[in-house]
Structures are given as C-alpha cells and as structure tokens.
Design goal:
By secondary structure, the protein is α/β, with parallel strands linked by helices. The chain is 61% helix and 9% strand. The protein folds into 3 domains: 171 residues, ABC transporter transmembrane region fold, CATH 1.20.1560.10; 114 residues; 211 residues, P-loop containing nucleotide triphosphate hydrolases (Rossmann fold). The strands form 3 sheets. A 6-stranded mixed sheet has the order 6-9-10-3-11-12, with helices on both faces. Strands 2-1-4-5 form a 4-stranded antiparallel sheet, with helices on one face. A two-stranded antiparallel sheet has the order 7-8. Helix 5 runs antiparallel to helix 8, helix 6 packs antiparallel against helix 7 and helix 13 packs antiparallel against helix 14. The longest helix is centred in the N-terminal third of the chain and has 50 residues. The radius of gyration is 35 Å and the shape is elongated.
Length: 642
Amino acid sequence: MARNATKQDENTREVKKTVTLIRLFGYLLTYKLKILAVLLIMVITTAITIYNPLLIERAINVHIKAGDTKSLISLCVLGVILNIIMVMLIKLRMYIMATISNEVLVTIRQELYEHIQKLGFKFFDNRPTGKILARIMGDVNSLKDVLTNSVTTLIPDAITIITVVIVMMLKDWRLGLAALWSLPVMILGIMWDQSRAHAGWQLFRKKNSNLNAFIHEDVAGIRVIQSFGAEEETQETFDELVEEHNGSFIKACMYSDLFGPIIDICWAAGLIAMYYVGIRIVGAESVAVGTLVAFGTYIGMFWQPVMNLSNYYNQMVTNVAGAERIFEIMDAEPEIVDKDGAEDLMSIRGEVEFDNVSFDYDDADDKTDGRDDAGELDSQTKANEASSDNSARKNTVALNRGVQSVYGNGRTMCKVLNNVSFKVAAGETIALVGPTGAGKTTVVNLIARFYDICAGRLLIDGKDIRDITVDSLRSKMGIMTQDNFLFTGTVRDNIRYGRLDATDEEIEAAAKAVSAHEFITKLENGYDTEIKERGAGLSAGQRQLIAFARTMVSNPSILILDEATSSIDTHTEQLVQQGIESLLKGRTSFVIAHRLSTIRNADRIFVVDKGGIVESGSPAELMAKKGEYYKLYMAQKREEEF
C-alpha cells in the first residue's frame, strides 16, 4: 500500500474474490470433525425439510380424500416429531458454527496482530494508526457471518435446491420447467448487480478506514486542538469524512438491496408460470390438488434457499473487501528479517563501525514509475495519462525516469545519509549534534536496525548487523527515544518493561539512579500507582524519568539516548546528570542532545549535517577549531543568556 493520510483513500491491491475466499475458508479446515458433524446434521434437517411437502401431499391426496382420520392423525404426529427433531438439530448446528467462527476470528486477529508486530518502522511511518486499527478490529469482525454462513447456509441450501429440482422433475417435468423458467433471468440480474455492489463496499471500507484514522488522531491530539481553538476546523473535517462515509454506505446498500427484489420478481414469475401450466396447459383434471399444493411448497423451498444464497452472496460481496484488506497486511513482507544463518549475539564489547553507509527513508517506498504497491498506476499517473494535454503526460514520465536514474537501481546518492564512515571504540561515548532533520536519529535507528541501510556495512564488534538476529541485537541495547511512551499499568510495570525479569530491587535502584525514586514514592501508591493512557496525569519530565529508568534497568552494552533530557527542567537535569554519567561508564553510548551543555563529557562529538559527519572530535578540539560545533555552541549560549 502506498503512503496516505487520514483523508486519503488507501491503494488496495486487486485480488480475485475466489482466491481470497479460498484462503479465508482454509481456516475452517482446522475444525474438520466439527464441520463434518455440522454437515451430518444438515443432511438430516434437509431430508426432513424435503419430506414435509410429501407428507402434505399424502395427507391431501390419500387420507383426507379417503376420510381416514386415524391415519391422518398418525401422519401429523410423525410430522410434528420430525420437525421437533429438526429444530433441535438446527439449534445445535448454530451453536457449533458460532463456536467455530469465533475461534477462527480469534486466530485471524492473532495472526494479523503478530504479523504487524514484525513489520518495520516504514510500515507504520506510511499509514495512520487508525487505519491499522480498522483492519485489526472492524475488518476482522466483518468476517464472522461469512464464515458461519459458509457452512450453515451455502452447503445446506445448495443441497436443498438440487434435491428440490430433482424431486420436481421426477414428479412432473412440465411443472418443474415452468417453475424454474425465471432462474436464468435471476442469474443475469445478480451478476450485473454484484460487480457494482462489490466496488461499492470496497469504497465504503476505505472511507470507514479514513474516518477511523481521523477520529484516532483527533482524540490523541485533543489537547493541541483545544489549545489552538481548532475545534471548528476539525469538526468541518469530521463532517466531511462522515458525509463521505455515509454516502459510500448508502450507495453500496443501494446495489446490495437490489438482490432481494430481483429474486422476489423471479420467484413470483415462476410460481405464476407453474400454476398457469398446471391448470391451463396440463389441465386441472390431470393434476391432483395435493400435487399442485406440493409443487407450490416446493417452489417456496426452491426460491427461499435461492434467496438465502443471494443474501449470503450479498454478505460475502460486502465483507470480502475486509478479508482482502486483512490478507494484504498479512502478505506485507517485514523489512527487517533475519537472514538465513544469522547468529545470536551472545555478548559484545560494543565496538560500532559505519563503513560507507548510505540511507534514504524513501528507498523502498518511492514509486518512481508512478505505480503503487500492487503494480497499478497511481491515481495521479492515471490522470496524467488520461489528460488531453499530452505534454503534461510526457513531462511526468520524463520526471519519473529522471528520479529513477538518481534513486533507482544503482543509485548514486541518498537523501538522508550518504557514504558515512566512522568507528567507535567499545565504551566510548559519542554525542551527535546538528540541525533538526540532519540525520542524528537516523544514525541511532540504523544501529538498532529499525531500518536497513541502503548501501555499505554497519558492523558491531566486526560483525555485519545483518548477520546477527534482530532479537539478540536489540537485547544488548538500551534505547530511549524522544517519544517516551508509557503503557497503561503501574509505574513498576513500565520500568520493568526494560527487562521483564528485573526484580523490584533492581527497578528501584534504576529509578534512584535517574532521580525518579523521590517523585515516584510521593505518588498515591508509589511504584504500584496506575498510569493512565500515555502517562496522562504525569508531567513531561516525570514521564521522561520513568522512561529513563526503564532504559537503565535493561543494563545494555550499547546505550542510545535520543534527546534523553529534552523534557526535564534545568534543576531535574542536574540531578539526573550524575545518574546518566554512571550509566554511560563502561558502555558504548550514543547521545543526541540539543542542549550542548549535557554532552560536555562526551569522548567525541559528531556534527551531523548534509548527509554525513561534517565535523568530529572532542568538545575541546571542536571548540578550538571554531567550526560548525563552535557556531552551534555559541548560538545556543547567546539564546540562554538572552
């Protein structure tokens, strides 16, 4: 899928519905024995259903005609017993299938969630969180009825239709043909309608995803919205998305609702034709009253399953779009995977080397030929190609080719990092400074292998990190990013997240080292205080101190601090600085900080800009050099004095 925003429809790949359905129904094979039991139940209930008109025919033509009340009562008792058995079996079938379908949904949701957790940062960079949630929740839930009815509706109703046709033809082929003459008309009508309905429901899923994404983003940023008084603007956007959502739903329903009338008309036409042929052509004297009644019942038994199947088909068309969206994510290949033969990193010294490393965030995402992830031309390219202005289309193609020559196969440059080389000794502390967007965070993200480099090698203790398993690599690292995300749970649980087997004593020791212990003990329940979503109720500095303790308790060999003190006031920063310095000892550390005063004890400083390291050296060396670092330091000092 291509990158998109909350108001932009997702580009979904086109897959044949049969392929999606076969894959979806494959989940039912795990429950073979239960499904066989359901099928046996359906055979029995279908047989009883087919036998009911024959009971009616015999009651009218034989017992009522002969005035045999005793036999008629016996026949009625038999019919009641059979139908009670049928009702009980139907209830049992519904219970079994409800259990199976719920278990399948749990399996699909678990597989989807597990797969999403394996996907790299690029996947999440390119789509709003709300659109991912829409697939995990809404799209998965939409499959329940499709799975249940695939067995309880599709198979028994298909068997019923075939059996009814055979019985009608055996009893009187002329009445049978008359009753079924409108079937081809119905098939053509359904085929015409379903293609439009499927496209409508695909569009609805996209609009629903847009609305989910906007609501999630709006709620997450409600403080910003209220701070800037932007309620009216967000309301307008919400109304626009709701209007699109409702419009797509109504249009999809309009086509879906045509299924019923098409079948009703064909049903009525078949019934009229059967009675006309039976009375006017074959002759009333040649056809017994009981037979006409039985045929009328059989026509209902034929068209009702047809109606059920059309409703199921309508339901399938409605919800198969959800399955397509689910499987599209499940088929997305994780960008960061262990190569064959990758080794676990048991212990490391912490030596890090960049060997002509190049990186571009858009390396795998730029559609330089105007195509989306499914290989289809994107909307803008289609628009240009369809444009009457031929020069505009030629210019677009030329531009795409030009971009590909620079950033395609055999690219000559990258926009973020380009041929970066440096070597960091074990235990050395490196500070990364530079203007916003220069690539400082990118450097540490590559070390943790959140992204794969485009070219060159990245070595730890002389081993290419692509030859090391991802889990073992990251288990040796302590990473504190700018986003100090706290989970719902206790303070203790959030700190323990850094190392799940950490003891309470180790957790408290880590908190003390970063000066978090004092404020934690003053909370309502101390370390057992429940944290609200995203740490609501705590100050930015408190959230950052908890996140810092979480990093410290992991006891890493390589430490990454990305703006570790950005949300801490000057007084708290002084308290935590000693804890930071003790944590840095004996570990290879990469520290990103805009406050240059916090990195004065770094072994070396790298000034990152223009796709590379433009300057490096100790703080004293760089100050004496009066280069880029000196300019940054003096500019910041003037700001502080001002």
